[in-house]
Input
Amino acid sequence: MTKARIPGPLAATLGGVALILAWWLFSLLVFQQQEGTTFTPVPSPYAVFDWLFVQGNIAGAWSVFQPTITAAAIGYLWGNGIALVLATFVLVFPRTETVITQIAVVTYCLPIVAVGGISVVVLGGAKNPGDPSATAIFLAALVCVFTTVVGAILGFTSADKASLDVVRVYGGGAWTQLRKVRLIAALPAILNALQIAVPTAFLGAVLGEYLGSITAGVGPTLIRLQGQLDSAGVWSVFLLCAVFALAAYGLFGLVIKLVTPWVAGVSGVGGKAS
Output
């Protein structure tokens, strides 16, 4: 007997309402405006709404996010591309698995703020105003490597041995096994790792911008708003970042369902869900 589960959209709506309610209570009861000042550490949801829509700051959101999204996308492609190459190298040369895995672990354990500081000195920021930061691209790529390497290796090694033996018996070599069995078996794990890397790359890009050497983007915008003690603006940019990351993560999840319908228990056209 299966337990009834709350539908995903309803659960997301209830969770969002609960978070907004908790946010409003914290701003009202815990983080109150300090006497003699106009500064509020945690603005109310209405203050954020006012900053975004009443004051019209939402109109300039794309100009703020465009360099960051571009840096995150470029870093995402580079980081995951390198990770997939490393995982494929393990597939071709299995004895290198320990070495490749340790390399991925090192990229995960590196203090990203310190690495970002070094990359600002070595790589610099944006060449021209409005261009993505080289440091943001590098950090976006760096934070993607670990999850994708691990996910791809686990996927490649999860192939059914019986299926591999069948291919071998019928004269198929390593390349045929890769195309017919290993890639299909690895696809769900690889896509899940790539999905996790979407918000991670965006976070890395924001951090890279936050370290400086760039005039446009989420990072410098946050620095400017913090210097102005504009808490409503800071929270607004933070919420827009969260909305973008969640939306990108969710859209990639839809792509996964379309590409790997068998994982969700959906058969082909005319079939029934398992």
User: Anything to note?
Assistant: Residues 61 and 143 are 25 Å apart (CA to CA). Residues 62-233+242-258 form a domain with the MetI-like fold fold (CATH 1.10.3720.10). Residues 265-274 have pLDDT under 50 and may be disordered.
